[in-house]
Amino acid sequence: MKFSEAVTYWYSNNKRNLPWRKTQNPYYIWLSEIILQQTQVKQGLPYYEAFVSNYPTVFHLANAKESEVLKLWQGLGYYSRARNLHASAKYIANKLEGEFPKSYKELLQLKGVGDYTASAIASICFNEPTAVVDGNVYRVLSRYYGIETPINSSKGTKEFKELAQMLIDKNNPSEYNQAIMEFGAMQCKPQNPFCDRCPLNDSCIAFNKNRINELPVKIKSAKAKKKHFNFLVFISKDEKTILQKREGKGIWQNLYQFPLIETEKNMDAKSLKKELVTHSLLKETTFELSLYNEEPIVHKLSHQHLHTKFWIINIEKPLYDGVPTAELSNYPVPILIENFIESFNFD
């Protein structure tokens, strides 16, 4: 039995029962693929169900406010995915009159859609024989064929794509692409794969040469930068606080946060008070400053680690333009802020 047949046969007997596998509607497949980028199925499934429930068609998603989309996305991270999702929904609804792109090349025109996502939608929905290459596929092919080319190099990207395209079942690309991804996720796992009961173990180079833990090869990324975030949580006598919308192209774009002081080193109360003396809200009023968390909360992002402190500032005067603390849950915020809001007693 050749490679593609063995993987597809395995899939027919072992695939998980997932909602996006019960449809070929490109809108639902697109939703699932964007949500599952950088996200495991168990985490992404409730988000998929929430999006389908709130936005059953691309028109519903296109007509939503960006803040509503970001709020529903809250906790998934990599928020550019949500912004691109919303922008592409508007493009499909308004420019394409709701007609979803039907080919790999056309799908690449959507914001946030690259080679993998375009290949997945084109094959699953329109049976176009274009191979998917995601982390699962890299792992399966690297181990089975004993390929040592780094998967995160330009050479590796080209080599694995060409191999995947050569292996795809051109008569049934939809089933095969889903099969090899599922095989990598459930059978040829990153850690402790089920090699003893793998249908490919007799011809798998990594298994037969005892190199399972060495493949795939990946070039080590640069060390994450360390940053110090100091969030100022104002609480006024009229039970309001301050939220600010993050602008620009940095992390958490268009999400809300408490006023932030970013420093190169850990900040103590004495240093912070010097900073606060000139703050417009604290002029001609008394305030109490306290630190919510003695140990910084380390929030790890892909390229930076945020060592975070939340400083509580109780002020005597009212915040006429502030946000009522009872309404904080209505705003889309980073998971770091959400966790604080849930744990802090604003009553």
* Name of the CATH architecture of the largest domain: Orthogonal Bundle
Highest CATH level, the class of the largest domain: Mainly Alpha
pLDDT averaged residue by residue: 93
Structural class by helix and strand composition:
alpha+beta
Element-by-element helix/strand order: HHHHHHHHHHHHEEEEEHEEEEH
CATH names the topology of the largest domain as Endonuclease III, domain 1
Shape descriptor: elongated
Q: How many domains, as an integer?
A: 2
Helices and strands, with pairings:
Layout: H1 3-14, H2 26-35, H3 41-54, H4 58-63, H5 66-73, H6 80-95, H7 104-107, H8 115-126, H9 135-145, H10 154-167, H11 173-186, H12 205-208, E1 225-235, E2 240-241, E3 244-245, E4 256-257, E5 260-263, H13 269-276, E6 287-291, E7 297-300, E8 304-315, E9 323-324, H14 335-343
Parallel strand pairs: 1-8
Antiparallel strand pairs: 1-5, 2-9, 3-4, 6-8, 7-8
